[in-house]
Amino acid sequence: MAEQSTATPDRKPAATIGDERLAHQSPIQRLMARPALGAFAGVVLVFAFFGATAGNTGMFAADGMMSWATVSAQLMIVAIGAALLMIGGEFDLSVGSMIGFAGMMMALPTVYFGWPVELSVLFAFAGALGIGFLNGLITVRTGLPSFIVTLASLYILRGLTIALSVLFSNRTIVSGVKEAAGDSFVTWLFAGTVGNSFFVWLAGNNLIDRLPNGEPIVNGIPMVIVWALALAIAAHIILTKTRVGNWIFGAGGDANAARNVGVPVNRVKISLFMFTAFCATVYAACQVFEFGSAASDRGLLKEFEAIIAAVIGGCLLTGGYGSIIGAMFGALIFGVVQQGILYTGVPNDWFRVFLGTMLLVAVLFNNMIRRRVTAER
Amino acid sequence: MRQEDKHVKTGIIRRALLAAALTLPLVGFATTASAEGERFVFVSHAPDSDSWWNTIKNALKNAEKDLGVKVEYRNPSTGDIADMARIIEQATASNPTGIISTIADYGVLEGPLKAALAKGIPVLTVNSGTAEESKKIGALMHIGQPEYDAGKGAGERAKEAGVTKFVCVNHYITNTASVERCQGYADALGVKLGSQMLDSGQDPTEVYNRVKAYLTANPDTDGILTLGPNSADPVIKLLRDTSSAQKYKSFITFDLDSDISQAIKDGIMDAAIDQQPYLQGYLPVVLLTQHARYGVMPANNINTGPGFVTKANIELVEKLAGEYR
Fold first, then answer.
1. Running DSSP on this structure, what letter comes out for residue B196?
2. Which residues of B touch A293 (CB under 8 A)?
3. Which CATH class is domain A33-186+222-374?
4. pTM (global) more than 0.80
5. Spatial distance between the Cα atoms of A185 and A193, rounded to a whole number of angstroms
């Protein structure tokens, strides 16, 4: 609840003498105290690093930027869900498996049962929300750590994805979704692009490169980026400007205290599990409709990447503290480091060593900045 | 208060210096990337845990040295093909002289590879995928082993040996090509694949115990097909531990390593299907380099396999297994 408490400064002219109970805070200090600040510093560090080491390799050309922006946006979608849930005091380890399973729930009915693609997508979202509900219900009813409950879902969902795809199609990759979907609006909604004419204009004025056939090198902003931003804005408003947001902080901070003041903690937590599942399904839909297929290994280990992004962004593992903007910066750091390292030409055998080192440096830096400006938290 | 502030400040400076020191080694690598000469990116679908690709990495290193070019090997760490598509997009953005890629899933990789071609970057496909898929993408050529045919070849050998029920140990069930191999084997025997394909996982202990459980539950199994060292090595160990090798009329594997060649010498394994991965790493770099320098390119695809390694020709192969064979 750190963000609200600082949001009501005393602006009466009489304050020249001052109310001794109120510490003076400049707007800059207030800005600095936000949980996302450390992550923002991390982003600056990461861009400075790649600007120096990979500045002329195409990483900051239009198509290079779109490449790391897409990867970051993808991760952002699941990181937003993970961040809200972590602030609410729980984990969801089934995010990665849910991505694979939701994709299968879209592809199998479309390709093998001949359902209209719109119906399959609705079915997948309904199914995912149902599974999210179950995850939440089991967690709040049994009082078991959500870590364990969703670990079970991780295996069950991954197993179902493999078993069902082999059962119905005898293979583990179900392709042909693009053909079946045709020019349905669903394809555009998840895998289309926006702003095409803007990029044509940019290319026309030689602001970005053109392909040999004359088309601009980037022909629009992929919908996955639009989804990431839309989800982020919605989640940020809910978390910081509404009563539900206060409930989330309360449920994650101290569930008993929150219950005593009348917060419907169980309902909040179950809804958050459903929201994570929703985010995973959006991720899956973007992938299925971009690539035209669902595969049983989609989303492997994405649950950890989502949690890592949330933590880099300042969410506490213990719950009750964090922000959506921070999680977005966290996802951006992860995406940029992951793709950017490839531009620096680091030999593949060492790739993961450097990925880990870069992430550690970004997090240390982020942590240091946060401690410095919030004077310990 | 002031005193403390100062203390904090020096602490921060010290930590910032540490951070800088940690990132410094990266800068050294960065400069090599922008050196003169051709630069190729080789993108595979293999997860980090798949040791078979070491031969290809060695081939790439040799090609780099022999030709004076630079080759970067890239793979998705979990084997997720959607991640592989992102790597190809990234490679395209970095403007290499050429891209070498497997076609682990045509539907997913078609778009990114075509985008690379549209940007004027030559693409050559290797390993997984068919010649038709390669042609549809517009790649210069395909260098690999037709998977279904290779599986069928193994199945024909098994049929000669009298196999009726088999297990296909699939350590990479999410790859279409791996299912094709099992399917080809089943078709050659003239039986349905059904539940005879076992999803073994990648971890050696898991493979060992799942195969053990399967063979116990299906005692009338008389043929074994493994799809690579990751599934073959644990099965070899299992047959050694239980000394039950004689029970199986045919035990064939895809690919080679030192355990497999020892098993062939000892008569535990009948044959290994060699797709000569060294060539799949070395040849595309050679061809793309010559293409970049002199504009030449062979008109046909190259099949590097299937070749069968048996007790008869194992001596030749054995010394180099796991490194160049």
1. G
2. 105, 107-108
3. mainly alpha
4. no
5. 12
